[in-house]
């Protein structure tokens, strides 16, 4: 609990980060940049867990542990996604989403 | 007394079928034939032993032949009384069939080794013969109506396979198809009958169905339909099935065409065994036929049989294909058996017709198989079915000649050959119960003698055509069956059949009425004499007679245009006026609707496939806007 | 004091998050992302989730960001500016994001959270016991599952990114 800061303000921050991430995910053309937007979204979700744990159920640890798990999953996801991106780049020589449409109908 | 070994009787041929059928590329020509024959020999020995033991050892309890369930296992259970069993039922008529079927089958197996020499698919032929024998034995040993129906269809299949044995020949394929469709059509009646019986009698078990108490109880329970008991209708439907297999008018059209199959097949299936299945079926359910509505269904059996006998005998006068003459003769003789069943009573000497029917079945199997095998030997030698290509063969084929003569005398009812005894019993039974039927039977006896000796004289006398290469006597494997069957044809008439087989199982003493016997012998001899006059030497007497009869001759020659009538009914009426509109409806309305739906789906898919851009960002945007939209909608609705 | 620090961190988070999604230089936007993550870690420290903050710093700021930088250096020319989406798409995305944010904030601010004041701090021991416990509030099973996932991801990443010898020839 941060002295003098209500849960509303922290949730506001996480909400803003979440929608900034959404905006980035939709507008970015580069695969790596899209992935970075996903990281923002993940972080805002993790912050939500932590805040709610801290402010509403201070005796428990669930939120913190879920955040740890989210970080672990994010690490795994990033590693795999980057591996895929590198492999893709070797084949297509591009990371632009407009040129990666071969699976379209 | 453990009788479960009898289960081997049908299972051995099944095993032979699988053995030969699965390994048929591995067995070379004569060996597969001998394997099949030896398998059949073992089956025959077990069958003879079983039948002998049944008749003379344990079958008769307190002077009545019992129905013994030698083996029975429940297969499909519907209710406590209604269940499909598989088993072996021993009673006098199945014991008789246990002698007939394996004996003829064994002879045909042996004969086929010579006859099918160097035919392609030699092993396949023997496999199919075994399949047929299995099915037929299963049929005669069936313990309940449904088992008999299953094996009934199986004999139909094996008959189809064997008729279509020369499957490169279009006519054989057509004949096989025709036989299958016609008998299958008739079997539909059989199935309807079975279902009616299962609904009203609630059992398929033969011992129950034929017990007198059950019949009395049932006849007071079931309702009436159009003046007759429903069970009577069911029995008429069952008889339709029997008539189809037994080639009774008007379902006989497949039998002459079935002669496209190899001759041993005709001897086994289309003369001696399968075609008498209808007789067997009526005999099996005889108490039901007799007691419901005072035997109305039995009257139908009698008249159908009598008419078929006369009808087929008439056609046999004018045919030139020797196998077809024999086919019509078969149909005529089966008509005789049906007729005999139809005029039979139930108790004691009243049941003469029943016994005579099975007696005739037995002797007919012997002499008709002999005739067919003889015809096969002739065809083998002359390479033709047409009697115009034959003549004077007695010099070339002495064994065939003598055996054929014996068979012809037997079928004509000349004493002391077997046919005389059985035919005399039939005529005696008809005389006692149904005068018009007796007259038909009497006339047919004379006609039979005439057309059989027409056949005999045309083949073995008539004239000496110039053969390209002299016909030769058949090999040993073919003549030995002829001799065995000739022996049976001569002596089987002396079996005291009435002691063994009777409707009520008690047996009785039959005695020859010499006046009636004399009459039938006289008409038989008149027939033979006429044939002698017409056909002993080559002359134009028969041609002149044919001219004299003009139209009638033409009608009989074309088998009364029954085939054409069927074609007319099916093609012109059913196909054009009923199936045609249905096909049009199916093709245009049903298919059209389906095609419309399919085409529209494709069209819509073409139009909207642009939405599937393959870009995850678009999807994410759609997803988020949709979610927001829904949230707004719900939020507005909730407030 | 805490309040001021919180506001500073919040401003850092929002501003650099925004910059990282609009900047056309990918290297810069990675660095902005790093700042965002570090500020998140700061928030965790302020809430006395020390272990979580440490993990955030090491795994995210230390590991993942480095991974990004490496892969960017492998595949892209660093100086070439990123493509920008079409204007209508940017406007549409902006409208959606702003609308979504307004809705979410409206929902948050109109909900009455009952805050529970509690000053007990959570130590690393507590976290460790909770993660390796199989009783109530124990997370040994998810923990092991995560370890399997990480292993699988590692193997998968190697297999996917590896150059195929056949293709090379």
Helix and strand arrangement:
The complex is a heterotrimer of chains A (about 100), B (about 650) and C (about 170).
Chain A: H1 7-27, H2 31-56, H3 62-92
Helix pairs in contact in A: 1-2, 2-3
Chain B: H1 8-22, H2 29-58, E1 60-61, E2 64-65, E3 68-77, E4 83-90, H3 92-115, H4 122-140, H5 145-163, H6 170-200, H7 206-209, H8 212-221, E5 224-225, E6 228-229, H9 230-245, H10 254-257, H11 263-272, H12 277-284, H13 286-291, H14 296-316, H15 322-342, H16 352-382, H17 398-411, H18 418-433, H19 435-460, H20 476-491, H21 497-500, H22 514-535, H23 541-549, H24 551-557, H25 562-608, H26 616-638
Antiparallel strand pairs in B: 1-2, 3-4, 5-6
Helix pairs in contact in B: 1-2, 1-4, 2-3, 2-4, 3-4, 3-11, 3-16, 3-20, 4-5, 5-6, 6-9, 9-12, 9-14, 11-15, 11-16, 12-15, 14-15, 14-19, 15-16, 15-18, 15-19, 16-17, 16-18, 16-20, 17-19, 17-20, 18-19, 18-22, 19-22
Chain C: H1 2-22, H2 26-46, H3 50-75, H4 87-110, H5 124-131, H6 140-161, H7 165-168
What does this structure look like?
- The complex is a heterotrimer of chains A (105), B (639) and C (169).
- Chain A is mostly helical.
- Chain A is 74% helix and 0% strand.
- Chain A has a single domain, classed as Helix Hairpins, CATH 1.10.287.3510.
- Chain A is built from three helices and no strands.
- By secondary structure, chain B is mainly α.
- Chain B contains 26 helices and six strands.
- Chain B has a two-stranded antiparallel sheet with strand order 1-2. In chain B, strands 3-4 form a two-stranded antiparallel sheet.
- Chain B is globular and about 110 Å long.
- Chain C folds into two domains: 1-79, NADH-ubiquinone/plastoquinone oxidoreductase chain 6, subunit NuoJ (Four Helix Bundle (Hemerythrin (Met), subunit A)); 122-169.
- In chain C, α1 (2-22) runs antiparallel to α2 and α2 packs antiparallel against α3 (50-75).
- The radius of gyration of chain C is 21 Å and the shape is globular.
């Amino acid at each position: 609990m941060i002295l003098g800061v209500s849960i509303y303000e922290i949730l506001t921050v996480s909400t803003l980060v979440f929608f900034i991430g959404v905006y980035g995910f939709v507008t970015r053309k580069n695969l790596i940049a899209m992935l970075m937007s996903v990281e923002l979204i993940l972080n805002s979700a993790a912050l939500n867990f932590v805040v709610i744990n801290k402010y509403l159920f201070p005796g428990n640890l669930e939120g913190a542990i879920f955040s740890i798990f989210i970080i672990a999953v994010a690490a795994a996801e990033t590693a795999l996604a980057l591996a895929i991106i590198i492999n893709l780049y070797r084949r297509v020589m591009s990371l632009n989403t407009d040129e990666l449409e071969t699976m379209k109908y | 007394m453990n009788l479960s070994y009898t289960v081997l009787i049908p299972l051995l041929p099944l095993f032979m079928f699988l053995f030969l059928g699965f390994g048929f590329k591995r067995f070379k020509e004569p060996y597969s034939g001998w394997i099949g024959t030896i398998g059949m020999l073992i089956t025959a020995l077990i069958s003879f032993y079983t039948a002998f033991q049944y008749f003379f050892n344990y079958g008769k309890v307190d002077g009545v032949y019992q129905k013994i369930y030698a083996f029975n296992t429940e297969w499909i259970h519907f209710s406590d009384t209604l269940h499909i069993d598989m088993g072996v039922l021993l009673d006098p008529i199945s014991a008789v069939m246990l002698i007939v079927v394996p004996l003829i089958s064994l002879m045909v197996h042996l004969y086929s080794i010579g006859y099918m020499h160097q035919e392609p698919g030699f092993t396949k032929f023997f496999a199919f013969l075994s399949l047929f024998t299995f099915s037929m034995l299963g049929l005669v040993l069936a313990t309940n109506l449904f088992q008999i129906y299953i094996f009934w269809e199986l004999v139909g299949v094996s008959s189809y396979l064997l008729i279509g044995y020369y499957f490169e020949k279009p006519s054989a394929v057509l004949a096989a198809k025709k036989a299958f469709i016609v008998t299958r059509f008739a079997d539909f009646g059989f199935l309807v009958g079975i279902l009616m019986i299962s609904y009203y009698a609630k059992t398929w078990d033969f011992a129950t169905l034929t017990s007198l108490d059950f019949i009395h109880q049932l006849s007071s329970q079931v309702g009436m339909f159009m003046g007759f008991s429903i069970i009577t209708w069911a029995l008429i439907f069952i008889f339709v099935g029997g008539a189809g297999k037994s080639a009774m008018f008007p379902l006989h059209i497949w039998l002459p065409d079935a002669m496209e199959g190899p001759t041993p097949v005709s001897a086994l299936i289309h003369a001696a065994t399968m075609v008498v299945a209808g007789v067997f079926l009526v005999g099996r359910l005889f108490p039901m036929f007799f007691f419901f509505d005072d035997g109305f269904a039995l009257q139908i059996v009698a008249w159908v049989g009598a008419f078929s006998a006369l009808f087929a005998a008439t056609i046999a006068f004018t045919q030139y294909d020797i196998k077809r003459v024999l086919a019509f003769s078969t149909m005529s003789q089966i008509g005789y058996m049906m007729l005999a069943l139809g005029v039979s009573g139930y108790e004691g000497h009243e049941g003469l017709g029943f016994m005579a029917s099975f007696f005739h079945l037995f002797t007919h199997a012997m002499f008709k198989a002999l005739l067919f095998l003889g015809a096969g030997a002739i065809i083998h030698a002359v390479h033709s079915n047409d009697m115009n290509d034959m003549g004077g063969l007695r010099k070339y084929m002495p064994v065939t000649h003598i055996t054929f003569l014996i068979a012809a005398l037997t079928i004509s009812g000349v004493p002391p050959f077997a046919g005389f005894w059985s035919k005399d019993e039939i005529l005696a039974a008809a005389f006692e119960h149904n005068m018009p039927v007796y007259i038909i039977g009497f006339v047919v006896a004379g006609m039979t003698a005439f057309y059989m000796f027409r056949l005999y004289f045309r083949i073995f006398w008539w004239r000496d055509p110039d053969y390209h290469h002299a016909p030769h006597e058949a090999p040993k494997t073919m003549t030995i069956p002829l001799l065995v069957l000739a022996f049976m044809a001569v002596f089987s008439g002396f079996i005291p059949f009435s002691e063994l087989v009777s409707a009520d199982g008690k047996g009785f003493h039959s005695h020859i009425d010499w006046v009636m016997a004399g009459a039938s012998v006289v008409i038989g001899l008149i027939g033979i004499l006429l044939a002698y006059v017409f056909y002993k030497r080559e002359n134009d007497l028969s041609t002149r007679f044919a001219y004299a009869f003009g139209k009638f001759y033409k009608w009989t020659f074309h088998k009364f245009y029954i085939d054409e009538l069927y074609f007319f009914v099916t093609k012109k009426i059913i196909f054009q006026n009923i199936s045609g509109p249905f096909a049009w409806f199916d093709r245009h309305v049903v298919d059209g609707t389906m095609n419309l739906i399919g085409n529209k789906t494709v069209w819509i898919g073409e139009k909207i496939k642009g939405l599937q851009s393959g870009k995850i960002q678009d999807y994410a945007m759609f997803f988020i806007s949709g979610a927001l939209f829904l949230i707004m909608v719900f939020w507005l609705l909730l407030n | 004091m805490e309040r001021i620090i919180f506001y500073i961190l919040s401003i850092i988070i929002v501003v650099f998050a925004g910059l990282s999604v609009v900047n056309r230089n990918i290297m810069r936007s990675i660095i902005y992302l790093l700042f965002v993550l570090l500020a998140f870690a700061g928030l965790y420290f302020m809430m006395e989730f020390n272990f979580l903050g440490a993990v955030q710093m090491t795994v995210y700021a230390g590991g993942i960001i480095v991974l990004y930088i490496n892969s960017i250096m492998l595949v892209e020319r660093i100086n070439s500016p990123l493509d920008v989406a079409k204007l209508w798409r940017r406007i549409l995305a902006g409208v959606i994001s702003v609308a979504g944010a307004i809705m979410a904030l409206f929902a948050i601010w109109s909900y009455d959270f009952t805050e529970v004041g509690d000053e007990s701090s959570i130590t690393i021991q507590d976290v460790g016991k909770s993660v390796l416990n199989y009783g109530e509030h124990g997370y040994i099973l998810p923990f092991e599952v995560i370890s399997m996932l990480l292993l699988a991801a590692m193997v998968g990443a190697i297999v996917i990114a590896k150059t195929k010898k056949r293709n090379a020839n």
